[in-house]
Every structure is written in C-alpha cells, then in structure tokens.
Amino acid sequence: MNSQRPVNLDLRTIKLPITAYTSILHRISGVILFVGLAVMLFVLDKSLSSEEGFADVKMYLTSPLAKFVIWGLLSALLYHLVAGVRHLVMDTGVGETLEGGKTGSKIVIAVSVVLIVLAGVWIW
C-alpha cells in the first residue's frame, strides 16, 4: 500500500486542467438546455393558447428578469454548440494530444465568451 496517497481530498484545493473545466461546463450547459427546453415549451404553449396568453407572454418577455433568463439559456446553447463542434473536430483526429486539448479548450472559451457577449448585446 502506498503511504503517499492523500487521505482526505479537499475539492477546493485540487487544481483541475482547463480541459476538465470545459468538459464540466459542457455537461452543465446540456442540463441547463434540457430544463430550459421544458420552460420554453411551456411559454410557447401559453402563447399559442389564446390572444390573452400571447399578450401575457409578450408582457413577461419584456421584463429584465425574463431577458436575463433568455440570455442565460442562449449562453448555455452557444457554449454547448461551440464545445460540441470541438468534440466533432476531435472525432476527426485533430487536437487529440494533450497540448491540442488545452488549445482547443482555450479556443472554446474564447469563442464562447465572444458569442455570449454578442448575444447579450442583441437581447438587451
């Protein structure tokens, strides 16, 4: 038995590589999209139910909170899309090395930040 093994893993002190952060964020954005899809389908159903329902949805969607939620859902969609494209590129054999993975993760974060900021400008 190796006596150098850590006894208690403190998750706050473990330094994860950038590839781990992009992978975790990809999974989190997928969960957000799954939940957000249910909310947006409910809103769509309400808006198509009647004229009053459409007017209610239109009123709700103009509020700052609704714009923030929409921006959050759109941000999750954009990040998930960019990270998914990275995975598709890696499936072709490009960027499978350790350095390629790190570079790909940095590109995903940079492109996602730019797209998310542009989406925020578009929504607000």
From TrEMBL:
Cofactor(s), by name = heme
GO process annotations (BP): tricarboxylic acid cycle
Q: Topologically, how does it sit relative to the membrane?
A: Multi-pass membrane protein
**Residues in the signal sequence:** none
Give the UniProt subcellular location, in the record's own words.
Cell inner membrane
Q: Which UniProt keywords apply?
A: Cell inner membrane, Cell membrane, Electron transport, Heme, Iron, Membrane, Metal-binding, Transmembrane, Transmembrane helix, Transport, Tricarboxylic acid cycle
> Heme as a keyword?
yes
- Chain ranges passing through the membrane: 24-44, 65-83, 103-123
GO cellular component terms, A-Z: plasma membrane
Against InterPro entries, the record matches this protein to: SQR/QFR_C/D (IPR034804), Succ_DH_cyt_bsu_CS (IPR018495), Succ_DH_cytb556 (IPR014314), SuccDH_FuR_B_TM-su (IPR000701)
Please give the superkingdom of this protein's source.
Bacteria
Assembly description:
Part of an enzyme complex containing four subunits: a flavoprotein, an iron-sulfur protein, plus two membrane-anchoring proteins, SdhC and SdhD. The complex can form homotrimers.
Function, as annotated, reads:
Membrane-anchoring subunit of succinate dehydrogenase (SDH).
What is this protein called in UniProt? Succinate dehydrogenase cytochrome b556 subunit
